[in-house]
């Protein structure tokens, strides 16, 4: 593309009428690291995918694998040097909420209430609804009490939750979290994830970019990236253990991520013949395994 | 050995924290407990807040003759420091130059320097061809490796690292762990801040556990593994992997075995069979000897066993693996040393948390009486008073205006302390410009010209004070909104006005961020260059090492800010909806009337 932008809703995808119900589709998308140099390396290499309305997609990969670039494209942010086509479908023509690692680069106001207000001003909603919307956003993240405190009174985790609250206040059909929990401890990370889950329950599609494998859900869709290419698209359990299970076949290991201790333990149990598929993954499943071995905490 | 490598001590009151050579200590704790702050204090990058820190014989701070204490360069030379995202600190044109900068503080011969550069490149799996590579053309992972090489290159006895695995792939995390094991075997003392418990506890000998309230508990690794309640007390949820491994440990499996997934699986299988009432022997020995035999083969229990399963990417190609065996188990001798203090987490004198000062100097969201007023009223008052001040002709008027400004700041309870440097600078500038204006063609000093110039500059100065006060009292976004409401025509704002107002708001908003970023990189420059001098030369060197990373950091942040704004629809939607959040009340009218009266009085009396 000479203008360096990804074309919107290309005609190759046909009917525009039921656009709101259509999947977001990306076809043969490539992005060069230097838009002006056709020889430069590819940050994204012929990526094609469909994202259905209301779907939860976890995107994993090591640094430099292209997952952030793909996340920005999915969020509808302009990407210089992109070729290929994209139909925004249910995500609409305006960019989706996009939450990054560093809260301080995404907060423009001085308090959360101000921040939400600022987000709503540009959300395309009538000003009359702002007050109501602000309260709803605060309620969803449970931050009512912190709404009027200056950022210096909030912890890093709370500031990050604030940034996500404001970004999602517009109530769009798609939210993109780009390694939003990477600077957070488990408690703060979980709070942010709960906020994303609330929006998901309300019908929003979520793209959750992460390197933290403890955030994978067995049944959620996982896509893994390596060197700009999509190398895996399947459920969380298969990503972690492979199919059939085996350390060598684990897509997780293949895309350069560290296999967690628990996954190694489970794989060893499988190798020994003690456990069969499905291998445990969620907290509940592990608790069950502990109970069976008489290891449950008293 | 203890003579050569005495401990790193941090004392506050009677509480003494000790880092021993040849050990790896991991500092853990919840977000906001101040882990990074503690690490920076140990490195002398932050004021010690009353703690006495000593690297062996060298105190970190020397008492100043008249002024504040100053850093002891000999102590700084004892450690190498890797901040969070150490790749952001790189500033040189080539990898070799970067490594030379890390070695420059140490008086090494050219040959010794060259050898260290070569061996540190080798330690991260690189050959000599990497010397001429430019850091700014490297990928993120390569930059991280160069930063690790810089850490390893310095002939330092202590390594201080902040979140070394964040953002690294499996091979990179493995590489860091291996190099740390080697350094430990060489006798280095290592302190690592990490929230990656699974990685860090494989490596650790000891743990400093920081609670959310800022209290610090010293533990042997094994104690932490076996005590879920310690995690809870620190405000950390027990990691899922440890609730599994921990239950095996409490069931009698030695912690070193529980940390190895293969040995843990053997024990788990045994427990499962026992629980199912099968005929498996219910003696821990059976599985243990099995696991034990495996361990004798595998050598030290560690991530090493996992490394085999991991893809050996380009990373481990040149990494010497034989060095692994050099890593000793916990040195029992040093554990038994007298004077060791441990497990005293409940100590009331524990170093108190100091979160407020550890934060970036972010401004307070508008407080004081003015915050409750409509920004438009405040803004109108500011404009009227400013115009009146600019119209003043007499010196008596300037004096009166000075009184008005002082009264306004006092009544609004606005402190301009934050801006004292800027205010002082402008005052100096005012005097200087006036003095220059007074110097005539023939070298004589014309006092009337001096006064005239000073008079006009003084008015600007007063308006500036008032403007700074306004910026302090009302947050940038409120100010922006009030400007938009003032400038909007029938509910919409002209595009040009919109752009100008948004740009100004963002500039004001990010000034504190800019300052804190400068301070951050300046701290790292101290850790790298070990510059403690106050001479002009050292100041210039410090600026050089700070400016480049800062500039790149600002580019990165600018990009993120742009993403954040675009994702909120700024730029793609033509007209933002303006919320009429502010309500004009009686007190707003009162403020405007009073200001108008004062402005009018100034104008009538003095112009």
TrEMBL record, chain A:
Residues 24-252 form the ABC transporter domain. It comes from the Bacteria. It holds the Pfam family ABC_tran. SMART domains: AAA. Gene3D superfamilies: P-loop containing nucleotide triphosphate hydrolases. Keywords: ATP-binding, Cell membrane, Membrane, Nucleotide-binding, Translocase, Transport. GO terms for cellular component: ATP-binding cassette (ABC) transporter complex. InterPro entries: AAA+_ATPase, ABC_transporter-like_ATP-bd, ABC_transpr_CbiO/EcfA_su, ECF_ABC_transporter_ATP-bd, P-loop_NTPase. Belongs to the ABC transporter superfamily. This is ABC transporter ATP-binding protein. It comes from Cohnella zeiphila.
TrEMBL record, chain B:
It is found in: Membrane. Keywords: ATP-binding, Membrane, Nucleotide-binding, Transmembrane, Transmembrane helix, Transport. Residues 349-358 have a biased composition (Basic and acidic residues). Residues 1-237 form the ABC transporter domain. Its main location: membrane. Belongs to the ABC transporter superfamily. This is ATP-binding cassette domain-containing protein. It comes from Cohnella zeiphila. The lineage of its organism: Bacteria, Bacillati, Bacillota, Bacilli, Bacillales.
């Amino acid at each position: 593309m000479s203008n360096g932008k990804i074309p919107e809703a290309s005609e190759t995808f046909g009917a525009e009428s039921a656009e709101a119900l259509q999947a977001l589709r990306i076809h043969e998308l490539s992005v060069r690291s230097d838009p002006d140099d056709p020889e430069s390396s590819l940050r994204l290499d012929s990526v094609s995918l469909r994202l259905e309305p209301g779907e939860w997609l976890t995107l994993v990969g090591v640094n430099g694998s292209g997952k952030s670039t793909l996340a920005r494209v999915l969020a509808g942010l302009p990407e210089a040097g992109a070729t290929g086509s994209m139909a925004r479908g249910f995500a609409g023509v305006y960019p989706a909420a996009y939450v990054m690692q560093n809260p301080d680069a995404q907060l423009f106001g001085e308090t959360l209430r101000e921040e939400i207000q600022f987000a709503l001003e540009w959300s395309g909603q009538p000003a009359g609804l702002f007050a109501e919307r602000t309260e709803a956003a605060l309620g969803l993240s449970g931050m009512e009490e912190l709404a009027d405190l200056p950022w210096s009174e909030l912890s890093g985790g709370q500031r990050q939750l604030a940034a996500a609250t404001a970004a999602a206040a517009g109530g769009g059909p798609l939210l993109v979290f780009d390694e939003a929990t990477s600077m957070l401890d488990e408690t703060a990370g979980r709070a942010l994830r709960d906020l994303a889950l609330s929006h998901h329950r309300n019908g929003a599609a979520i793209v959750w970019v992460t390197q933290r494998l403890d955030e994978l859900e067995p049944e959620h869709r996982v896509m893994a990236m390596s060197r700009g290419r999509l190398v895996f698209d399947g459920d969380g359990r298969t990503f972690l253990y492979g199919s059939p299970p085996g350390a060598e076949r684990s897509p997780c290991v293949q895309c350069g991520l560290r296999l967690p201790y628990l996954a190694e333990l489970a794989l060893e149990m499988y190798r020994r013949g003690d456990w069969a598929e499905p291998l445990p993954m969620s907290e509940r499943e592990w608790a069950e395994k502990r109970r069976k071995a008489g290891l449950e905490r008293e | 050995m203890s003579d050569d490598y005495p401990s790193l001590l941090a004392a506050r009151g009677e509480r003494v924290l000790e880092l021993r050579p040849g050990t790896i200590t991991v500092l853990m704790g919840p977000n906001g407990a101040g882990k990074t702050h503690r690490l920076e204090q140990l490195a002398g990058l932050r004021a010690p807040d009353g703690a006495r820190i000593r690297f062996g014989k060298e105190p970190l701070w020397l008492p100043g003759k008249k002024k504040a204490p100053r850093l002891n360069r000999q102590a700084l030379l004892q450690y190498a420091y890797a901040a969070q995202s150490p790749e952001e600190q790189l500033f040189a044109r080539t990898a070799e130059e970067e490594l030379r900068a890390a070695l420059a503080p140490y008086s090494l011969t050219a040959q010794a320097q060259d050898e260290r550069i070569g061996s540190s490149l080798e330690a991260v799996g690189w050959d000599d061809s990497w010397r001429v590579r430019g850091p700014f053309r490297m990928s993120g992972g390569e930059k991280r490796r160069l930063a690790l090489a810089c850490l390893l290159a310095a002939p330092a006895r202590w390594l201080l690292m902040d979140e070394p695995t964040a953002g690294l792939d499996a091979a990179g995390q493995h590489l860091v762990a291996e190099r740390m094991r080697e350094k430990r075997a060489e006798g280095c003392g290592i302190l690592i801040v990490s929230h990656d418990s699974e990685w860090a506890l494989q490596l650790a000998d000891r743990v400093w556990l920081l609670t959310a309230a800022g209290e610090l508990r010293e533990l042997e690794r094994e104690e932490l593994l076996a005590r879920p309640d310690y995690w809870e007390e620190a405000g950390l949820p027990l990691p899922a992997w440890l609730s599994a491994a921990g239950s095996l440990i409490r069931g009698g499996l030695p912690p070193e075995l529980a940390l190895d997934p293969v040995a843990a699986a053997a024990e788990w299988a045994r427990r499962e069979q026992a629980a199912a009432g099968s005929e498996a022997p219910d003696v821990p020995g059976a599985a243990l000897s099995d696991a034990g035999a495996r361990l004798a083969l595998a050598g030290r229990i560690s991530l090493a066993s996992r490394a085999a399963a991991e893809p050996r990417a380009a990373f481990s190609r040149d990494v010497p693996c034989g060095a692994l065996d050099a890593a000793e188990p916990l040195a029992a001798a040093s554990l038994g040393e007298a004077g060791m203090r441990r497990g005293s987490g409940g100590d009331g004198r524990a170093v108190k948390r100091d979160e407020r000062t550890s934060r970036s100097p972010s401004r307070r969201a508008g407080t004081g009486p003015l915050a409750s007023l409509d920004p438009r009223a405040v803004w109108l008052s500011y404009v009227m008073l400013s115009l009146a001040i600019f119209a003043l002709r007499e010196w008596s008027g300037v004096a009166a205006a000075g009184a008005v400004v002082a009264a306004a700041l006092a009544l609004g309870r606005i402190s301009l302390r934050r801006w004292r440097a800027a205010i002082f600078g402008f005052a100096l500038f005012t005097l200087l410009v006036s003095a220059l204006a007074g110097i005539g063609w023939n070298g004589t000093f014309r006092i009337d010209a001096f006064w005239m110039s000073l008079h006009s500059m003084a008015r600007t100065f007063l308006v500036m004070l008032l403007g700074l006060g306004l910026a302090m009292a009302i947050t940038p976004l409120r100010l922006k909104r009030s400007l938009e409401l003032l400038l909007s025509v029938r509910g919409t704002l002209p595009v040009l006005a919109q752009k100008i107002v948004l740009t100004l708001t963002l500039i004001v908003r990010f000034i504190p961020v800019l300052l804190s970023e400068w301070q951050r990189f300046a701290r790292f420059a101290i850790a790298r260059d070990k510059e403690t001098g106050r001479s002009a030369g050292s100041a210039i060197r410090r600026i050089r090492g700070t400016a480049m990373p800062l500039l790149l950091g600002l580019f990165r942040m600018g990009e993120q800010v742009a993403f954040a704004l675009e994702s909120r629809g700024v730029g793609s939607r033509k007209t933002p909806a303006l919320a009429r959040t502010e309500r004009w009340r009686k007190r707003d009218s009162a403020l405007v009337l009073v200001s108008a009266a004062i402005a009018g009085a100034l104008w009538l009396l003095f112009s």
